[in-house]
Amino acid sequence: MARTKVVVDPITRIEGHLRIEVQAENGMIADAWASSTQFRGIEIIMNGRDPRDAWAFTQRICGVCTVVHAIASCRAVEDALDITIPPNATIIRNLVHGMQTVQDHVIHFYHLHALDWVDVVSALKADPDRAGQIARSLSPWPNNSGTYFKAVQEKLQKFVSSGQLGIFTNGYWGHPAYKLPPEVNLIAVAHYLEALDWQRDVIRLHTIFGGKNPHPNFLVGGMASAINLDDTGTINAERLSDIKALIDKALVFVEQVYWPDLLAIAGFYKDWASIGGGVPNYLAVGMFPAAGSDFRDIEHLYFPRGIILDNDLTKVVPYDEQKVREEVMHSWYEYQGAPAEGLHPYEGQTVPNYTGPKPPWTFIQDQEKYTWMKAPRYDGKPMEVGPLARMLVAYASGHEGVKALVGEALGKLQVGPAALFSTLGRTAARAIETVLVARKMEDWYDDLVGRIKNGDVATFNDQKWDPSTWPATARGYGYLDAARGALGHWVEIQNGQISRYQCVVPSTWNCSPRDAEGQKGPYEASLVDNHPLVKPDQPIEILRTIHSFDPCMACGVHVLDAEGDLVTTVKVQG
Amino acid sequence: MYFPLTDPWEPGATLGEHLHSRGVSRRDFLQFCGEMGAILGLSSLLTPKLAKALEQLQRPSVIWLSLQECTGCTESALRTSHPTIGDLVLNLISLDYQENLQAAAGSAAESALQQAMKDHHGEYVLIVTGSVPLAEGGIYTTIGGRTARDILEEAAAGAAAVLAVGACAHFGSVQAAAPNPTRAVGVDQIVKDKPVVNIAGCPPIADTITATVVHYLTFGRLPDLDYDHRPLFAYGARIHDQCSRRANFDAGQFVKAFDDEAARKAWCLYEVGCKGPATFSPCPIFQWNGETSWPIGAGHPCLGCTERMFWDTMTPFYQRMPKVSGFGIESTADTIGAALAVGATAGVAAHAVVTGVNRMRHRKEGASGSGGGGPDGGSASHEEDRHGQD
């Protein structure tokens, strides 16, 4: 039987511009290609600039994961200039990064991913009282009454009757892949709406410390939000009370809405625990250093650094940065005189070489080069990054919190650990992580308040602020695990200016194209792992698996250098 | 941001009927109109007129294009600050295409876009986030195999109004910073045959976007704009003149280093690089995320992100007022204050919006009345300097 070529472009409900092409045969996907179709070239823009400004430029790589590039950038510059930030600044960054992670994961689940599993129109057939009973059996959340769900349903009915569906136009409603009972669909629709309100409130924590969201402000050497309990314009008891209330609000929603919804919905989609696994290797660089330590201290990260190979959870392989290589065999770049196994980022070249068809085009899968993403490999292997990678590395490392929640999820769903390596496992891991980070924020808050109580209000180290204190040349790196996976920034400073800047970004790993040996990247591999596609014109199954990675494409930001000059050329993407 | 399910608005119904049907009282509606009027800088005497116009509205189509960008502007829009007002305002529209939120993907999404453009040709509001990369025939951003430029030109042709939301749509933002590798440009470099409103900022405050839409729908025309096509109701006042730390500037009370004693007293950030004196933005007035705070309020200097090419003209960010004409880096604060006072008046007269802004409900007490300089608008010297560096 002939294969059917399928294009999904744009992939909606993601950050940025992603194109997926597949070949389908007998209701299954036989082959797949992932193409990033946006390039911005931010790294070359960094050259010659003040390294203290770098966080603001690189932050604009992404407005969804709006703090992670800024933190990675500050860390890279601090590493290069040998700056130790005060413990309070570490805690504040953890709180900001923590709330980012929690808020981002909730938005992903309800507003980006849920419509892959939840049939909005089906909710019209629900019995609201029955929905209330189900919801109360899952959680003590106060809005779990039949009256409440009835009101939501009436609004929904009126909306559908209007014929003006707005962003719900042409959804795949009624597709046989939707399996939830109408009552669970109704509960999920109600929580979709509640999460819209919740997300804009809890993120105010960023505004308190950083002045705004998206794109709150950061500072090399610490944080700019001074602490003074006796001033109206600083972090004081009123601001701290607000922060505490926001952390509480975040945790309650995550524990009483997100986590129960995830388990309830997953229970109807257990077949997706054997679909969409793909690449069996997982990389995490770790996140959330304890106050008084930093990201380089792998003993004091809340989520650990390490690698899982071949789905083997009995062993965590130490991460060795020297084993990272990037290839461009199938990317719109060329390497000059480079070895077939690719280049380490420090020797990276980024010379764009667009060979694709002239727009508008129809298919790109028959092209040798087909994306703006490079192909990063660790020790020659493609790696998945993100919440699943972090939870697997933590699980295999014996992280108590992760083991407990993984155990709870597997127990309630009555599946074994192998279920983690799947589309469903990816989505569940994100929820597990959210619960743990929301809980951990309470500890960080207590730590911060305790330090202030003991008289420590420092938020900034000014010893190396003045460029006259810097060495003539310096180089450093900064790591953290962003919501979507492992992130690293590298900076080189000469005579007070940036001479080289480079980022290796989560979506680069996950959206990687094939490499010289033909190994697919994680998106591509997941789509050919026992993966159905029943109706090619309604590719809901593709959206499920691609959304389970939470794609974030804006980071496709490689350096551009017309001469191919290695001094200024570095790669980056994401 | 968008609450289609909570507020279904049936075709043919006016907003007044729609609100009545969902149980919104006359009193609540008038209060909403009063608050929206305040954001727009209107006298409260105009509230009944605003209410009448809003009541008679039909639900218009809005098409939102995401081009070369980071999605921060969509995220900002998701954070509209007043739930009831944001909910109301955003239900003034039928959001018929928005890639970040819509259910359908691929061809189903594209056909929704085509259908909306066809059904509402000449009537829809086009919101654009992101820049347009022109280098190499536009290959640096494609959607559905088409270039950003191609998509924008098609959508703009049938639009009644075009709102360029955020710094990327305004002038290309960070990717247009020197040396602008992809030749990224703003919307007004592509759409020349109809007015383009620049909702400036990286990102802009959500209320600025919604109030601009309300203005257009209510009065049937776009709001008055400044020299850079930014709505005066939001961008007509300089941060420096509305700043809660202005009194410290005038008193010579400056933060010398982050987290010093002055920083812990929330004094003026001018000497650590604040660009408030050269930036026209509603930040100190609207504030961010439900009036929680704003950048200077949280102790960090203003980056000047509502100004064209700020990545090149406002950097280094921590250096005192680099590349801003009228005063050199070495000038004292007193000299700067005097220079600004001299250049002030012409801009105000031209803009004539300060009165409106001063009526704003959320205005910070004492923010504008504390200095000797008085409010000033965009002096010609600022503009010339900026353009000279493009």
What's the helix and strand layout?
The complex is a heterodimer of chains A (574) and B (390).
Chain A: E1 4-8, E2 18-25, E3 28-36, H1 42-46, H2 54-59, H3 68-81, H4 87-113, H5 128-138, H6 146-162, H7 182-202, H8 204-210, H9 237-266, E4 282-284, E5 287-289, E6 301-303, E7 306-308, E8 324-327, E9 333-334, E10 351-352, E11 375-378, H10 387-397, H11 400-413, H12 423-453, E12 473-482, E13 485-494, E14 497-504, H13 506-510, H14 522-527, H15 540-548, E15 572-573
Helix pairs in contact in A: 4-7, 4-9, 4-12, 5-6, 5-7, 7-9, 9-12, 10-12, 11-12, 12-15
Chain B: H1 15-21, H2 26-39, H3 47-55, E1 61-66, H4 72-78, H5 83-90, E2 94-98, H6 106-119, E3 124-129, E4 132-133, E5 142-143, E6 146-147, H7 148-157, E7 159-165, H8 167-171, E8 184-185, E9 196-199, H9 206-219, H10 232-235, H11 239-242, H12 246-250, H13 283-286, H14 310-313, H15 333-342, H16 344-351, H17 354-358, H18 380-389
Helix pairs in contact in B: 2-3, 4-9
Give me a quick take on this structure.
Chain A is of the alpha+beta class and 574 residues long.
What does this entry look like structurally?
The complex is a heterodimer of chains A (574) and B (390). Chain A is an alpha+beta fold. Chain A has one domain: Cytochrome-c3 Hydrogenase, chain B (Orthogonal Bundle). Chain A has helices spanning 42-46, 54-59, 68-81, 87-113, 128-138, 146-162, 182-202, 204-210, 237-266, 387-397, 400-413, 423-453, 506-510, 522-527, 540-548, and strands spanning 4-8, 18-25, 28-36, 282-284, 287-289, 301-303, 306-308, 324-327, 333-334, 351-352, 375-378, 473-482, 485-494, 497-504, 572-573. In chain A, the strands form 6 sheets. In chain A, strands 12-13-14-15 form a 4-stranded mixed sheet. In chain A, a hairpin with a 2-residue loop joins β2 (18-25) and β3 (28-36). Chain A is globular and about 70 Å long. Residues 558-574 of chain A have low confidence and may be disordered. Mean pLDDT of chain B is 77; it is low at 1-6, 83-90 and 323-390. Chain B is α/β, with parallel strands linked by helices and 390 residues long. Helices cover 36% and strands 9% of the residues of chain B. Classes of the chains: A alpha+beta (574), B alpha/beta (390).
